[in-house]
Amino acid sequence: MKRKIGLTVLALAFFTQLFFVLRTHYVQSNPAEVPSFNQTENGQELDQPADGAVENGSGIPSSDSDETIMDGELDLDDEVSFSDDLSEDEIDESSLLFEFSPNTFSSYLSINPDFTGWLSIDNTAIDYPVVKGRDNEFYLEHDFYKEAHPFGSIFMDYRNIGNGQDNHTIIYGHYTPNGHMFADLENYLSEDFFLDNNTITLHDMFAERTYEIFSVHIAPADPYFINESFRNPDMTDYMTDLQDRSVHQTDAEFNDDTRLLTLISCNYTVDDGRIYLHAIEIDE
């Protein structure tokens, strides 16, 4: 009897340990699951994180104007002045009613206030939320829910403003051997793939922006590809140089008003290597 009990305990201990090993392997082999932007557009609600899950990282502090409103200094009782051309009785009340249109991104913001948009590229696995922290370190090792994860997140450079306000938007993502995150940037080293899949879509809080890819190249990590546009007002020369560095040639044209998007990931064919994918915003 004692032997059977001992064997049972050993078996339970073995399977418990096996479960945790498999679970750890799964977590480390897959990014955090976030319902896609298209799913939320169709009405799917996002699961809320555990209490305190969004307390780490940056977040959005309240402004002085918020405090003013909360203190009651904003007088909401002021009478609205109507045009002298119409009396209040002549105004069609239906014209004052507005159809409520919820912000598709509100669910993501409620989970993580650092959420700044959604990035997708056709015919790749790149279809992820984009976050922006207080530095470029936190989201290297934390997922969208701000939980520690080796895959990190897809994140925007902390110096960017976002929402189409930057001359140069920079977005980072890890390379993973199983095809997640920014692994598919490597596909653009193939000329056929480069030519057939040359657009990137970035949904931000205010618009859907389309970018046309004009350059891909591999180089050691170099601040030139990140910092230059923050201090060099001559964007035309800068983008022309990026075009000249591309492994595939294009006939893209630029001016100083052209907005640039750069995606960056690791590449292991050179020491401390990076793959850089550059695109310009276009009207569609």
Q: How many β-strands, per DSSP?
A: 8
Outline, from the CA principal axes? globular
**Regions with little confidence, pLDDT below 50 for 5+ residues:** 18-27, 49-88
Structural class: alpha+beta
Instruction: Please trace the helix and strand order, writing H or E for each element.
Output: HHHHEEEEHEEHHEE
Treating each run of at least 4 consecutive H or I residues as one helix, how many helices?
7
The share of residues in helices is 25-40%
- The Rg value, from CA coordinates, equals 25 Å
Strand order of the largest sheet: 1-2-3-4-7-8-6-5
CATH class of the domain at 104-282: Mainly Beta
Architecture overview:
The chain has 284 residues and is of the alpha+beta class. It has a domain at 104-282: Sortase, Chain: A. Helices cover 25% and strands 19% of the residues. The protein contains 7 helices and 8 strands. The chain has helices at residues 2-29, 37-41, 64-70, 106-111, 191-196, 224-231, 235-245; strands at 115-120, 127-131, 154-156, 168-172, 199-203, 208-220, 260-267, 273-282. An 8-stranded mixed barrel has the order 1-2-3-4-7-8-6-5. Mean pLDDT is 77; it is low at 18-27 and 49-88.
Short description:
With 284 residues, the protein is an alpha+beta fold. It is 25% helix and 19% strand.
List key phrases describing it.
284 residues, alpha+beta, Sortase, Chain: A, eight-stranded mixed barrel, 7 helices, 8 strands, globular
